[in-house]
Amino acid sequence: MFSISVGLQTYVDKISDWLRGLAAMAPNIILAIIIIVLAIFIGKGVRKIAISGLPRVSHNRAVHRLIAGTLYVIVILAGIFLALNVLNLDKTVTSLLAGVGIVGIALGFAFQDIASNFIAGIILAVQKPFRVGDLIDTNTHFGKVQTITLRTTTIRTNDGLDVLIPNADIIGNPMVNFTKHDERRIEFTVGVAYDSDLEKVRKVTEKSIEGSEELLPDRDIDVFFTGFGDSSIDLIIRFWIPISDQGEYLRVRSIMIQKLKKAYDANDITIPFPIRTIEMNT
């Protein structure tokens, strides 16, 4: 009977001590709750400001949601850590920070490629080197941009194939955007016979191309003789067109080559065949 009374008294004492400690901690607990509530309200405000302000920098809604959500979580976590510190749970805060650091390192190694593509997607959304519908060359693939996400960019090649390219590959390699400007230069080379009148060749070449409706009127036509080939004198022709579409580019290029060949034939300018000399020992 005596032992039971002693045991009950022990539990009562412990509960009393716990209640006294709780009463003593009541101001800190209330303050911690207020800090967390304020953190929630501040986080929502920061998220709202971010969502309304980010469209000035980027038009990618996925990036807006990501950044706004990240800022909201950071504010909430800061409030939780501060509340734990108010409750004198410093060791808990230290353990949580250490755990977050270890988990972050582990996840960083495990999802390194995903993270790099993710960050590259954010960079693409902010810098906007190309948009949906642009014609680009990523150094490995050539085609029109179909979709841009935070991890991959999809382009449609001239063969009608959709290719998903990791954003990190686009950021880390040279990329050409053919639609960035509404004009493009066409360039091709041709060779004329060695006995040709080069001044006549230059004038005929320029006249065959100039005046075409496909050309930019404020751009010059360049004709340069580039060297002495094996069987011809080589020249390069350059001119500009107000076109960025690849199919139209190839069509205009084909038309100009046909015009040039017709003009050469009409003016007795020869485009020689390659000449090979074969010696046979008898």
Architecture blueprint of SSEs:
Layout: H1 2-53, H2 61-86, H3 90-110, H4 112-127, E1 135-137, E2 142-148, E3 152-157, E4 162-166, H5 167-171, E5 176-177, E6 184-192, H6 198-209, E7 222-228, E8 233-241, H7 246-266
Antiparallel strand pairs: 1-2, 1-5, 2-3, 3-4, 6-8, 7-8
Helix pairs in contact: 1-2, 6-7
Q: How does this model look, in words?
A:
- The protein is α+β, with helices and mostly antiparallel strands.
- It has 3 domains: 2-110, no CATH class; 129-177, SH3 type barrels (Roll), CATH 2.30.30; 184-266, 2-Layer Sandwich (Alpha-Beta Plaits).
- The chain contains 7 helices and 8 strands.
- The chain has helices at residues 2-53, 61-86, 90-110, 112-127, 167-171, 198-209, 246-266; strands spanning 135-137, 142-148, 152-157, 162-166, 176-177, 184-192, 222-228, 233-241.
- Strands 4-3-2-1-5 form a 5-stranded antiparallel sheet. It has a 3-stranded antiparallel sheet with strand order 6-8-7, covered by helices on one side.
- Strand 7 (222-228) and strand 8 (233-241) form a beta hairpin.
- Helix 1 runs antiparallel to helix 2 and helix 6 (198-209) packs across helix 7 (246-266).
- The longest helix is centred in the N-terminal third of the chain and has 52 residues, at 2-53.
